[in-house]
Write a structure and sequence with these properties.
The complex is a heterotrimer of chains A (278), B (279) and C (461). Helices cover 77% and strands 0% of the residues of chain A. Chain A has helices at 2-38, 42-45, 59-66, 70-101, 107-116, 122-135, 142-167, 170-178, 183-194, 196-212, 215-220, 228-232, 243-263, 265-276. In chain A, α5 (107-116) packs antiparallel against α7 and α8 (170-178) packs antiparallel against α9 (183-194). The two termini of chain A are 38 Å apart. With 279 residues, chain B is mainly alpha-helical. In chain B, α13 runs antiparallel to α14 (247-272). The longest helix of chain B is centred in the first third of the chain and has 33 residues, at 50-82. Chain B is globular, with a radius of gyration of 23 Å. Chain C has two domains: 45-161 and 337-389, D-Maltodextrin-Binding Protein, domain 2; 163-335 and 415-459, D-Maltodextrin-Binding Protein, domain 2. Chain C has 21 helices and 13 strands. The chains are: A mainly alpha (278), B mainly alpha (279), C alpha/beta (461). Chains in contact: A-B, A-C, B-C. Chain B binds chain C through residues 29-32, 45, 115-118, 122, 131-132, 134, 136-139, 219, 222-228, 239, 242-246, 249, and chain C through 88, 91-92, 95, 98-99, 117-118, 120-123, 223-225, 273-279, 283, 286-287, 290, 292, 421-422, 424-425, 428, 431-432, 435-436, 439, 441, 461.
Amino acid sequence: MTGARRRRRRRMATVRAVVALVLTLLFMGPILWMISTALKVGTDAFSATPKIFASPTMDNFVHVFTEGSFARALGTSLFTAGLSTIAALLLGAGIAYPLARYKIRGQQHLSFWILSLRIIPPIVVIIPLFLMLRTIGLTGSVWSLVVIYTYMNLPLTVWLLRGFFADVPKEVEEASFVDGAGRLRSFFGITVPLALPGIVATALLAFIFAWNEFLFANILTGANTRTAPVGLTEYVTPVNVEWSNIMAAGTLVVLPVWIGALLAQRYLVRGLTLGAVK
Amino acid sequence: MLPGLLFLVGFAIYPTVYSLITSFYRWNLNNPLGKQWGGWHNYDILLKDPAFWHSVWVTVRYVALSVVIQLGLGLGLALLFFRRFPGDRILRAMLMLPMVVAPVVVGLLWRFMLNAQFGIVNYVVEQLGFTRIDFLGEPGWALPTLILIDVWQWTPFVFLIMLAALQGIPEDILEAARVDGAKPWRIFWDHILPLLRYPIAVAVALRLIDAFRVYDLIYMTTRGGPLDETETLSWQIYDAGFRSFDIGYAAAFSWLMLILVVVVTTVFLRLMLRKEDLS
Amino acid sequence: MGRKRARNALTLIACLALVMFVAACGGSSNDSPSTSTPAQANTSGGGKVELNAIFLPATWGTVVKDTLAPQYEKETGVKVNVQLIARDAIHEKMATLFAAKDSSFDIFNLDYNWIPEFAGAGHLADMGDVVPAADRQDFFPLSLKVATWNEKLYGIPQTVHPALLWYRRDLYQDPKIMAQYKQSTGDELKAPATMDEWRKQVEFFNGKTFNGKKVYGWVAQAQKGFANVHTWLNFLYTYGGKPFNADFTQSTLNTPQGQQATAMWAGMSKFMPPGANSVTYDLVTAAAQQGQVATALHWSWGAFAVDDPKSSKTVGDWAYTQVPSASAGQPSHPHLAEWVISVSNYSKHQAEAKKFAAWLETKKNDVVQASLGGGDPVRLSSYDSPTLMDEKVKGTDQLRFRRLPEVKKAMETAQPRPFFPLEERWEQVVSTPLQSISLGRSSVEEGLKQADQDVDSSLNR
């Protein structure tokens, strides 16, 4: 009986594995095609009968990385996305923690208002934001994007972090007060480590959003401060779209965040659990 | 809390208030006369414009369909991955890929693949014996295609949340139900789904908000066409604000959109969540 | 719950933080000149002027970025940072910068139809002083006219490319095909002079297989937006249609000429390759390069791309002639495309910026740009330049600039887009009813009536 059941279970696992493999391939397909196009020479990339196995070449990657300013754009992206993520986390924690710990009158509205900021289309706020950035003398520099991305991600970090902090049992914190730790020390010593998976997940999401952002970057960056998604559009020339170069650049844009997501996968899943499952 | 709030006040309240005030002006950036007070003028012409209501309808269809499909697929995938099987970790990592791809790359990549003449998808379509389809240009096809692209990109996100939620369900609840002899779909319906209420609400709310904002994708693919079939609200706002520089009109447009999004999300969250979840 | 797990997580985030920190340092040290504001950058380096320019990532932009700007720095010591930005983004960026009276960019590459809106609002600097009256004689008169607003010159023409009719020499001169054409239509197969002739040829070619390759009748930009409008304008102008009354207060599309033009344009759309509704400039070029079409309505300068063996299978095969006319003996009126170089009114280095803009279009550099594969020349004298006119496409007997005589001729009758500040909005508004006509969703008359209505109400927004 138990042996039959185990066998059945194993068979089910195989079926599931096959179904999952097929579905994963469907989702992976476009990305595999992107990578394979990046490995083709220009005339093979866009021809009437697609060549699935053309002789691969690294030329496009070399071209994208060494000629023009794409490598530099990747650096700028890393800088702005990284720094703004850290800033959004710090500022976001500052708002989220009190929201999670204290009964603040009308806080339900406050967090909803914070979330609603994410809804306003960037086009509407870009001119006032631009004017403000100019007042503080940041236009055209990478710092303007750091500021904008922090602003853009703050609602998300507040919303997610509030959930994670709320999940840390009050009793654990209070115990540390008894031991004589101050509020701040107990926050960094107890709450942060306990909520860490959630914080990592939040950081990763914020990073991805900032890394991929296009509209603000397109308008706000200066001559030498373009980010990778903006730099990529340089290959879309009006006369012809350099598909193999775009795909190479696209692969380079995707790779770092994917690796980051892989490294933090456990925390991402667990973090989302903490936030999503009360 | 203070520095964060100060930052928000500085960078969020000011632009918000600014845009609200702007929405009452007749103001084209390149009009040498500058701003002129218009009162309800912008709102008035918008609400009477059939094109506005058309784009509301396009947006609602886009958002509703893509979110519903993502939820269904994401939940299905999560149930598939819930019990371990050989290679599940690798496949899960692969499945995450689409959601980290920059929307600009997504738009270009799909435009490349869906091209009627040179795209791989149409090559496959033709090999299967069908005629080539201009997915992004044929009336009737463009909107479903955009929805499909959104589903492709964001199902993994919903899947991850659902999977996490499933793994958070205490095993003894499921075991108890199984011992009672409940059928699998009964267990899912009676025991699992109620526990997923909050994660579903969170996932859907996040997706709703982002789907309403869809812009990069349309910018890179259909640009509102064919005809007016993919003229979403955010695209029209872009058009008014950045092609014509009608800043006042675009601001009024966004406020109407904001109201729509807030109403839809609030109603949805109220329906999904009990009072205690919100606090 | 897992203390250990928490510790692991802490290690991970510490590592991540370290990576970020290193990246941040790397990033900031790489970008150190650019993290300072442009105003500071301008004055750095011992008071030497540094200019910031935005050009289109078309070949004339890359030529400036890769060759001419570095050369200018060598000659004058003035460094020009050139950023290449797509068409929409230039427009958006200019509006934002100008709204804030920002000075971070000095020089802009403009599509000429933006001259009225930006010059009218006072955002552009008067360029009259750097192009002396005597020198203006050498430019195409039309090219200067569309860079002028309220009688002041606000841009220096950098490239003109009126639409031309492209046709495949290899097909049109193939004796077998010529005989076949004669047999089925009774006419000689030659470059079409009138729209009716062209239509007949397009119908003949469409869907047939020649020398083992299936071809379609013609291709042109047709995606909704500026693309379909820009193609349709060739027909409208050629049939004598006018989009507006004299002072741009009323749309006048639904006229006999407008109807005739639109009917011809829409009727021909069925002879395009499948997927024509999403065809933009780059796809026209791709179809021409792959030899998928017998004819094309395309901007002249796209010819560089089809003679490039790296991406084209039709090197040397294309020939160019005038857009067909409405009836024999009359001229046609192709739609003009042109890009100009303008200087921001908020630039802190206007004089230097104007000097650079003018230098890009000296007699010598107008030829240099073309021969480096930039846009088509804007100066009449360049059209007699032996450097350009005698060069052959490598490996063929075809002249590399065989299109230029036709470009010069087309410039005599070409017409610009409606030259008024709301042109971009106008294109957007008319594109939808036009596509509705070309898709057969509405009749020509209904569609044009709708377009008139939509345009008129959008003017009052």
